[in-house]
Amino acid sequence: MIFNKDTAEKTAELLLQINAIKLNPENSFTWASGWKSPIYCDNRLILSFPAIRNYVRDEFAKHIEKQFGKPDVIAGVATGAIGIGMLVAEAMGLPFVYVRPEPKKHGRQNQVEGFLQKGQNVVVVEDLISTGNSSLLAVEALRAAGANIKGMAAIFTYGFDVAEENFKNAKLDLYTLSNYQNLLNLAVAKKYITEKEESTLREWSVTPSTWGQVETK
């Protein structure tokens, strides 16, 4: 669910402007999962553009407090959301921790890095939601450390049904600055893509795991 429609449209336009989101229906990208996709999203680029990272920071800070109340701690999911999560924590005057994909193999073997007390209210910041699996593993680690997770706030989501189901099963509210639907609407209105390309992009979103695969007999 998006925080706000105006924010969703503005965020989508900014992501397209800096090529954090690339749309290429003719020459698809291959994700780490092996999925073929006409869209690629790298929100880490936001950190290289001060005006845009400040916009994202401020929108997060405003909407997080409005939607979840002011938490005790902001947590970022490594590695993509460490930078923006820390900026949000700074803007809100809150402590910050981040969550590794898995515990370190040496030293204290931490998975949650930073100072976190049991029972503290935490909002998790993420950069991108696809299936939601890696994001929810971070939530599990925080819950195992005794945190009370108020919700997750992400920059962008593809809006896959599987992600919605995963968050529902995890009993966790997800809100985003923008999403795939608002991105496509904006891309068409601003002529980033043609109507034919829009049709391809919408087709992909229905069956992303099998889109673009060559059938073999």
TrEMBL record:
Q: What is its EC number?
A: 2.4.2.10
> Does the record's keyword annotation contain Magnesium?
yes
Top enzyme class, one word, equals transferase
Q: Which reaction does it catalyse?
A: orotidine 5'-phosphate + diphosphate = orotate + 5-phospho-alpha-D-ribose 1-diphosphate
Molecular function terms from GO: glycosyltransferase activity
In this chain, orotate is annotated as bound at 130
Q: For the Phosphoribosyltransferase domain, which residue ranges apply? A: 50-156
Q: Which residues cross the membrane?
A: 73-99
- Could you confirm whether the keyword Membrane appears in this record? yes
Q: Which SUPFAM superfamilies match?
A: PRTase-like (SSF53271)
Annotated 5-phospho-alpha-D-ribose 1-diphosphate binding lies at 100, 104, 106, 126-134
Q: State the pathway, as annotated in the record.
A: Pyrimidine metabolism; UMP biosynthesis via de novo pathway; UMP from orotate: step 1/2
Q: Which cofactor does it need?
A: Mg(2+)
Keywords, in A-Z order: Glycosyltransferase, Magnesium, Membrane, Pyrimidine biosynthesis, Transferase, Transmembrane, Transmembrane helix
Q: Cross-referenced Pfam families, in alphabetical order?
A: Pribosyltran
Family from the record: Belongs to the purine/pyrimidine phosphoribosyltransferase family. PyrE subfamily.
What assembly does the database describe for this protein?
Answer: Homodimer.
Q: What does this protein do?
A: Catalyzes the transfer of a ribosyl phosphate group from 5-phosphoribose 1-diphosphate to orotate, leading to the formation of orotidine monophosphate (OMP).
Q: What is this protein called?
A: Orotate phosphoribosyltransferase
Q: Which organism is it from?
A: Flavobacterium palustre
